[in-house]
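During the first year of the project, the team set up a workflow for recording each protein of interest as an amino acid sequence followed immediately by a discrete structure-token representation. This format lets reviewers and collaborators read both layers of information side by side without switching files. As required by the reporting guidelines, we include two representative entries from the current panel. The first entry is reproduced here exactly as it appears in our internal archive.
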Amino acid sequence: MIFGGLGLALNITTIVILSCSFTLILTSVIMKHFHDSLSNFNAISRSRILWCIVILPWFVSALSVVALVFPELFQWKGIWASLHWHHIYDFSIFSWHGASLIIFSSFCLLLLLSRLARALKMHSSMNQLNSFSKSDVLLNGCLIIESNEVNAFTSGLLNAKAFITTGLNNRLNNDENTIVQLHELAHVKNSDPLRKYIFSLLVSFYPLKISEQLNASFSLALEQLADSEVLKEIPDVALIAKTLVNVTRLQLNSSQIAPPVSENCSFINTPLESRIHYLLNEYKGKSFPYFILIILVFAISSISTLSVDLIHHSFEQLFSH
């Protein structure tokens, strides 16, 4: 048995684990039925909603900790009046608390190690890209890579850089090259590779199918936002759309296609039709749903906290420390 401050810390971690798990389940069920509705929002609102989705489990967990560990701070009534955590300063490793802690901690450790390995691999790839790139830089700051591959992308977590291959650069006219380069520089300006990396880490806690959908939606939103940045510099929607089609056609006809890297922001690895439709449509979609989000957060937080409390008290009836 562990007592005192360490026991308190381990019990708080158990609350976080349970609350996070319940929130992940609830949010996954919601996303399974309403994921397609994300396309009704404009790109910036969609990206904010997606950030809220991946942060929500940890936010709800923090609320659950406050509600269960410090019930004296609130004047609970009704079903909330019984909210508390038994023996908050006592923790047994050889209990259901300990089992849940060990399982979740092992999963988190494996996940963090895999993401660290991914970051190190990206750093190594970045060094290789710098060595392959020409010493001369395009006027707007993009780096040229000597390669027959048809590709343009932004890479680098802490020091993002935009790259374009000679295989693509030599096949585009000046206007098309400018559009591609401005698009990639928008990713550099917004540190999009780092944002994708952090997002992919947080979304990894969701079931595989849900995480893949959320990652794809986030990547599409970033590409649409970068397209919108280009539109501010070159207000010719038809030319930008034509460039998207042309670059995609060149890649499909190319015998050398680079495999996509999930954290990179590639000019042509997201759905073409969705990007062109977003560009050509004057109505970009709904704005951020503040009111609906507040209601959902309150509902999910309430269900999650009550569920954690119910599970805790039920298990206390079945197992002894």
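The second entry, processed by the same pipeline in the following quarter, appears below.
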Amino acid sequence: MKIETNSNVNLKQPNSPPQSIEPKLEAQGKATPPTQIQQNLNNGKQNTPKVAIDNTAQNLQKLQAIAIKFGLDKATGPDKKPFTLEQRANRRDRLKLVQKQQNLERILEDAAEYIDSSNANEEVDPDWLYQFFEAAESIYSRPMQQLWGKILAMQTAKPNRFSLRALDTLKKMTYQEACTFQLACALLLKDKSGTGGKIMTGLYRQQGILNWFKPAKAKHINLSKFGLSYPDLLSLIDLGLIYSSEIESSPFPLGHALALETMQSKVILTIKQPNIILTYYKLTQAGRELASLIATSAKEEYFNQLSEIFAPECEVIKS
């Protein structure tokens, strides 16, 4: 979800008429050579003004539509007289209440579609519900309303699944940022319990005592090749979905096996050389909770390259 504005460009007429492209006869009766004719053509092209589209009227219409939607237009009453400032403020407050009520009703309708047959032994915390509806009433985007509806349904079936911090994070998230988070989830590796989401970024081998002063040869994966650029990572970090710095594992011994999972399949990562350290970005608690809402497929190209780059230090087997 970018708005670009186009600068207005005035069309100007050229200061002098375009040069004739017909051959001119010289005093000796000779015509201008063809190369000179082509040069005159090129000069004519260079002097031709560029045409730009003026979008002022279209952008003004968009602005007026926004003003009407949020009750900021200078509306008139039945007698065609403009409302006073106080009347316009009261009208905007009433319109805002109607819009918030409509938002909540749509979210409840979405929640009803996600309700399943799970048997909840606990009631949803009233304080959590109050905070939920306080935040959800200001969600206007339909895709985001569907996410909020899914949260309510899952919290009803299994109370305490989503924290208030996760709600606060989701409230600050735009639809575009939610799409970015979906891209990140397509690169996730989780452990067997389904927690601890990691996005692998590389590895290196820890040097022994005799090689302390030699730089370790690190291998890195370029995440931007798979749709997750560095600015995207910074955005997710600012939202509190990913920890702010790249994390390093402790050194793994030779033969150690990590049982991990993508969105669809299981992955076994086996250490083939001693003292291998993995580097990765890790989801925060709020990030792990919200990742359970995301329906996406694992990006197979990423995991294929992961297998290629990690060899021969690690063997990656998918099943």
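For the second entry, the following points were noted during internal review. DSSP finds ten helices and eight strands in the chain. Confidence is low (pLDDT under 50) at residues 1-32. Both points are flagged for discussion at the upcoming steering committee meeting.
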